[in-house]
TrEMBL record:
Protein name listed in UniProt: dolichyl-phosphate-mannose--protein mannosyltransferase
Domain DUF1736: 311-383
Top-level EC class as recorded in UniProt: transferase
TPR repeat residue numbers: 499-532, 533-566, 601-634, 703-736
Gene3D superfamilies found in the cross-reference section: Tetratricopeptide repeat domain
InterPro entries: O-mannosyl-transferase_TMTC, TMTC_DUF1736, TPR-like_helical_dom_sf, TPR_rpt
Ranges annotated as spanning the membrane: 33-54, 131-151, 188-208, 220-237, 243-266, 286-305, 372-391, 403-424, 430-449, 458-476
């Protein structure tokens, strides 16, 4: 049932509404849907969009969140704010050869604010902001769709009128509950798309404000056109797609404000008709506004080009295999197949995956591949819609179809591989904005069906069913994005051929200590992609820990053969060779790793261990010192320096190194323990005792801490305290080396003293 409610606005606005509605066909006449006042419509959209993704609020950092947030130094207070303008989304310098050139400083700035307000990496705050952003965008969609579907009309007082309240509500609900948006909302890095969409819509609404009527007649405001350009630039600083709003504003201006008939215009251009002014090109300042938009867009792109540099982003074949195909035919046919998959995700968002690369979508290499049908279906639909958008005699139909296709296609162009190679095959996040066009076309299709249908209630119930299914799908998908384990496992059924899916499942299992299960998934990842060096490296690491050294060496050797500059694999190969007592080869592997990654503190640490095993003490100390210079908080390197100096009798130097280390890492109990041992040997008992007690307070269950404190008391003559801590140590670890013997010596001494007493 359609619920009609009276508008509470002044009578003159209602009259204006009806007068303007009669000027052209009104989409709402044919739409069998609910009619709500604007305020209530927005409240409903906000509530439903919140319900879809509310269960993601307490999710973890998952997938790309680790690199973009946890490992991104640009979020920390010690990084100057100015650096954000010269770094990419992941915290790397834009001038670096390894940079992906994803320039989104405003998005990173919001992450930094989140981090500072939360006082650390607590994901709840990050998720809540994402949910709020999506709800805000969905509410703005009510206004945007009212313009796109109903046209731009103002009352005598300059207030914009909603000529399609039912249609705009339906389209906004479709947008709010679309499951393909889950990655943007539940995945924290999706904030780039959300912020981009927010300023994208504000730019569009700002552009619309430029056409408010005034007493002097219909004119436009240069101020609001410039505001729209600035908001478009802001959208681009959140994500690259934002720049496309300037093109869409121009399309909107031509079709809605100037009511240009594109087919008629093309004909006049072809026949060089001198009456082009009558076609609308010069009417109402269109040329001036297009010039402002073009100049603004060119300026924005120039500034970005100067900041980013001229080098293209570095991607690998596994990221986007079609773009590396030698044949132009193979590239073209696969790009078009990717477009059809994106279209299918909009139509039927049931099979969703966090990553579609690594063999998830095998290349189409010949026309005999049955998947060609998808391309044919896509272009059949697109050509049909384009023909209707150009050739229909119904100007209302032409306008809506052209705007729908424009919002569907233009924001997708940066991800289309047409202008530059992108680093993915299919990415659900990039169709957040194009889904606006889908919602326009869906709503228009629904209006056509409603017009023809005899039982409109059944049609309305069917659309309500679609919305309800999408809400449930959003809730389910949001729950899968709450943790990496659920997210990765959900992809196994969607993309079983994706090596990265198996790799991530394996990595998640390995992080939880389930090495046996992790090995299975790593092996499957390597089987699916025999050149997957990261899977080989991680599998080699596990096999090394399980003392399966020869297979580990084979895998790591193959990894560095495939990718000679893979520094981590070279270091791990060195560790394996060291364990196999092939010291010269291990040293060479370590230095090769350092050659490919100059600042590699962990490799210097392992090199120091190798030198220590070879009794090359000076070299070991130098290697560990390099590790601490590169990473001052490298506790293991500091500890090894203290222990080596202690063992070689250099107590004064060991003490100096220990004090230096504790100044840098004051709460590290292992450093307190090592320095306490040195101070005890130097007979600085009081200071040594204080450090031992502090270390025990930080880690009370370390048997060695209690055992060495007992030795200190034993030497110091505090025999009762020595006995107490020997007993605690033996209780924690009955097999603690040396502790039982020292305890027995103490007991005998106490017995002797008792007899003498």
């Amino acid at each position: 049932q359609i619920f009609n409610q009276h508008n509470a606005e002044a009578p003159n606005l209602e009259q204006a509404f009806h007068r303007m509605a009669q000027m052209e066909p009104n989409l709402d006449h044919d739409v069998s849907w609910f009619l709500l006042p604007s305020y209530w419509a927005k409240m409903v959209v906000a509530l439903i969009s919140f319900l879809c993704f509310a269960n993601s609020y307490d999710g973890d950092f998952v997938f790309d969140d680790s690199e973009a947030i946890i490992n991104n130094k640009d979020l920390r207070a010690e990084t100057p704010l100015g650096d954000l303008w010269y770094h990419d989304f992941w915290g790397s310098k834009l001038s670096s050869n390894t940079s992906h050139k994803s320039y989104r400083p405003l998005t990173v700035l919001t992450f930094r604010i989140n981090y500072l307000f939360a006082g650390g990496f607590y994901p709840v705050g990050f998720h809540v902001i994402n949910i709020i952003l999506h709800c805000t965008i969905s509410v703005l969609m009510v206004d945007v769709f009212s313009i796109l579907l109903g046209g731009l009309q103002f009352s005598n007082k300059g207030r914009r009128l909603n000529l399609a309240p039912k249609s705009s509500l339906l389209a906004a609900l479709l947008f709010a509950v679309h499951p393909v948006h889950t990655e943007c909302v539940a995945g924290i890095v999706g904030r780039a798309d959300l912020l981009c969409a927010l300023f994208f819509l504000l730019s569009f609404l700002g552009y619309c404000k430029a056409f408010r009527e005034n007493k002097e007649g219909h004119t436009f405001s240069v101020f609001w056109v410039l505001v729209s350009v600035v908001l478009g630039a802001t959208a681009m600083l959140c994500k690259e797609q934002g720049i496309t709003i300037l093109g869409l504003n121009a399309v909107f201006d031509a079709l809605v404000i100037n009511k240009i008939n594109l087919l008629e215009l093309i004909r006049k251009l072809l026949y060089k008709d001198k009456s082009l002014e009558n076609a609308g090109l010069l009417r109402k300042g269109l040329l001036s506004r297009i010039t402002l938009l073009m100049c603004g867009g060119a300026g924005i792109l120039y500034v970005r080009w100067r900041i980013m540099g001229t080098g293209p982003p570095a991607f690998t074949e596994v990221d986007n295999p079609a773009s590396f195909a030698d044949s132009l035919f193979v590239r073209a046919i696969n790009y078009n197949y990717y477009y059809s998959l994106n279209a299918w995700l909009l139509l039927c968002p049931w099979w969703l995956c966090f990553d579609w690369s690594m063999g998830c979508i095998p290349l189409i290499k010949s026309v005999s591949d049955w998947r060609i049908i998808a391309l044919a279906a896509l272009w059949f639909c697109l050509i049909g819609l384009i023909c209707q958008a150009l050739c229909s005699e119904d100007s209302h139909k032409r306008r809506i179809l052209t705007l729908g296709l424009g919002f569907l296609i233009i924001p997708f162009l940066p991800a289309s591989n047409l202008f530059f190679r992108v680093g993915f095959v299919v990415a659900e996040r990039v169709i957040y904005l194009p889904s606006i066009g889908y919602c326009i076309l869906f709503t228009y299709g629904f209006s056509l069906l409603s017009k023809q249908a005899k039982k409109k209630k059944i049609l309305a119930v069917a659309v309500l069913g679609i919305l309800l299914i999408n809400v449930m799908r959003c809730a389910l998908r949001s729950s899968q994005w709450r943790s990496e384990e659920q997210l990765f496992r959900s992809a196994l059924s969607v993309c079983p051929l994706n090596a990265k899916v198996h790799y991530n499942v394996g990595k998640n299992l390995a992080d939880k200590g389930n090495q046996s299960a992790a090995i299975k998934y790593y092996r499957e990842a390597v089987r699916l992609n025999p050149k997957y060096v990261h899977a080989m490296n991680n599998l080699g690491n596990i096999l090394k820990e399980r003392n399966e050294l020869h297979e580990a060496e084979e895998l790591l050797s193959l990894a560095v053969q495939i990718q000679p500059d893979f520094a981590a694999a070279w270091m791990n190969l060195g560790i394996v060779q060291n364990s196999l007592r092939r010291f010269e080869e291990a040293e060479q592997s370590y230095w090769t790793a350092i050659k490919h990654r100059k600042k590699y503190p962990d490799c210097y640490y392992n090199l120091g261990r190798l030198y220590a095993d070879l009794n090359r003490h000076i070299d070991a100390l130098n290697a560990w010192r390099n590790a601490t210079v590169l990473k001052p908080e490298h506790s293991l390197a500091w500890n090894n320096m203290i222990i080596l100096l202690d063992n070689t009798g250099n107590l004064a130097q060991a003490e100096a190194v220990g004090r230096e280390a504790l100044e840098l890492i004051p709460n590290d109990h292992s450093l307190m323990f090592s320095l306490a041992n040195v101070l005890g040997k130097s007979q600085k008992y009081k200071e040594s005792e204080a450090l031992f007690l502090k270390a025990i307070k930080a880690n009370p269950n370390a048997a060695s801490y209690h055992g060495n404190l007992a030795v200190l008391y034993h030497r110091w003559g505090n025999l009762d305290l020595a006995k107490k801590h020997y007993e605690i140590s033996l209780k924690l670890d009955p097999m603690a080396p040396g502790t039982k013997e020292n305890y027995n010596l103490l007991r005998r001494k106490l017995e002797q003293l008792q007899k003498k007493g």
